[in-house]
Amino acid sequence: MLAAIKIENGDIVLEKGSPVWVTGAKAIRQRLEIMLKMFLGDWYYDQNAGIPWMAIVELENEQIKEIIKNKLLKDEYVKEVKSIDVERDKRNMKINFRTNSVEGIVEGSTVIGGLA
């Protein structure tokens, strides 16, 4: 079972001075949401992690969904992508996803900001 330190708004969640842990489907959801927020090349330890947001922002939603789907399927805990929804305005993109994972159905969403 996957376990991870809980992250909210980019910060580690602490309870009585100790990190809070998430496990199972919650840990997978957090992992996928963080991965989707990451810009390609931003992580020092893996330059292939993330999505080339600035390069794909002008693409049609269906093309963006396909890129996101392929990225989600590369995660070792994801077995199938059930659905992806992309909503955009001038500066932000909201992504909702539903996957079948090794821990069951995982649903999540994230907002990518500052794209314009």
Cα-to-Cα separation, first versus last residue: 39 Å
How many discrete structural domains?
1
CATH topology: Nuclear Transport Factor 2, Chain: A
Which CATH class is shown? Alpha Beta
The fraction of residues in strands falls at: 35-45%
Strand order of the largest sheet: 7-8-9
Describe this structure in words.
The chain is of the alpha+beta class. It has a single domain (30-112), classed as Roll (Nuclear Transport Factor 2, Chain: A). Helix content is 27%, strand content 37%. The protein has helices at residues 24-37, 53-56, 61-73; strands at residues 3-5, 7-8, 11-12, 14-15, 18-19, 21-23, 78-88, 93-101, 104-112. The strands form 4 sheets. It has a 3-stranded antiparallel β-sheet, covered by helices on one side. A two-stranded antiparallel sheet has the order 1-6. It has a two-stranded antiparallel ribbon with strand order 2-3. The N and C termini lie far apart (39 Å).
Keywords:
116 residues, alpha+beta, two-stranded antiparallel ribbon, 37% strand
